[in-house]
Amino acid sequence: MTLGASAGVSDPGRRRRRNEDSYVCEPPLFAIADGMGGAQAGEVASRLAAAVLREANGDELSEARLVELIQEANRRVFQRSSEDAATSGMGTTMTVALVRDESIVVAHVGDSRAYRVRAGELEQLTEDHSLVGELLRSGRLSAEEAETHPQRSVITRAIGTEPDVDVDTFTIPGQPGDLFLLCSDGLTDMVPDREIFSVLDASDDLDAAARALVAAANAGGGEDNITVVLFQIAPPGEEQGDETVRLPAAAAAAESPEPELEDTLTGLEGVSAVDTAVVSAEDVREQIRREEGRREEGASDGSSKTRRLLPALLLVLLLAAVVALVVWGLYR
């Protein structure tokens, strides 16, 4: 299996002046880190995490080694956050892909995503470690509701917010022609999967495709930083791609008249769609109970309104009958 071309693009979006995303596009290692924490802390967290991977690239890497590297990234971010008041509470997501032999190894924390395009279909490989992701998997939220949920950026797992972190890992077989996408939620919150696939399917140039995805996210609102990393397994007969395009964060095309939105790591309530917060498993369970309570309350409110309307309806019918009798009597 031969690794083909790759490309990486990062853009601050239309609503933020700073870019707190970082990425690694150094074949055979690729990664996305979406930092958060307010001020410049998110940028610090994502860069610390990405640096750990860059230092190790060239070593003998494996699934177990990727877990060790992400744990080391967690240790560095947490230590810096503990020692520097200006970065207190910062964290970052991280999604890593390693092309190894005939397989692709994926390691994942947070709500950045890994996708694969194969045989004309786009498949999400990772699960979002987020409140909405939990509600969706439990069946308490539909896919349509998830797209517009006001707390869809509340994540349940991140690097650097706790002394230890659980890392999802898996290995999948690769096939010639497979195309892989790593991206921050600045893309997926603005561009639906079907449109992402359309963009990827329409271009044979990974650099152009990455730029087109960023442009689509900005056209959809650009409410967060947008980072895209693409790499492809070379189709049969093609030599290994020696062209790796890595583009730095681009300056915003125009400064938005709207106020800048800051990342936060505050509480669960009141978190907007473009802010990111990390919550515990207990917070998630409590939010699920709230969602169920709201649904039940809505149902009970509907029945109580029916019960309140019923006596009034009977009174109206009674008055109508009395009026009819009086009119009939006068007629007689």
Note the main attributes of this structure.
six-stranded antiparallel beta sheet, alpha+beta, 8 helices, Phosphatase 2c, domain 1
Please provide a brief summary of the model.
The chain has about 325 residues and is α+β, with helices and mostly antiparallel strands. About 40% of the residues lie in helices and about 25% in strands.
Description of the structure:
The structure is a single chain. This protein has 332 residues and is of the alpha+beta class. The chain has one domain: Phosphatase 2c, domain 1 (4-Layer Sandwich). It has eight helices and 14 strands. The chain has helices at residues 41-56, 63-83, 131-137, 143-148, 185-188, 193-201, 206-219, 281-331, and strands at 3-11, 21-26, 29-36, 91-92, 94-100, 103-109, 113-118, 121-124, 154-155, 168-173, 179-183, 226-233, 244-246, 277-278. The chain has a six-stranded mixed sheet with strand order 8-7-11-12-1-13. Strands 2, 3, 4, 5, 6 and 10 form a six-stranded antiparallel sheet that branches. 42% of the residues are buried. Mean pLDDT is 81; it is low at 249-274 and 298-313.
Question: Mean pLDDT, nearest integer?
Answer: 81
Number of strands: 14
Instruction: Give me the Rg, rounded.
Output: 26 Å
Structural class designation:
alpha+beta
The CATH topology corresponds to: Phosphatase 2c, domain 1
Name the CATH homologous superfamily. Answer: PPM-type phosphatase domain
Mind summarizing the main beta sheet?
6 strands, mixed
Strand content: 15-25%
**Strands of the largest sheet, in order across it?**
8-7-11-12-1-13
Q: What oligomeric assembly is this protein in?
A: single chain
N-to-C SSE series? EEEHHEEEEEHHEEEHHHEEEH
Unreliable segments of 5+ consecutive residues: 249-274, 298-313
CATH architecture: 4-Layer Sandwich
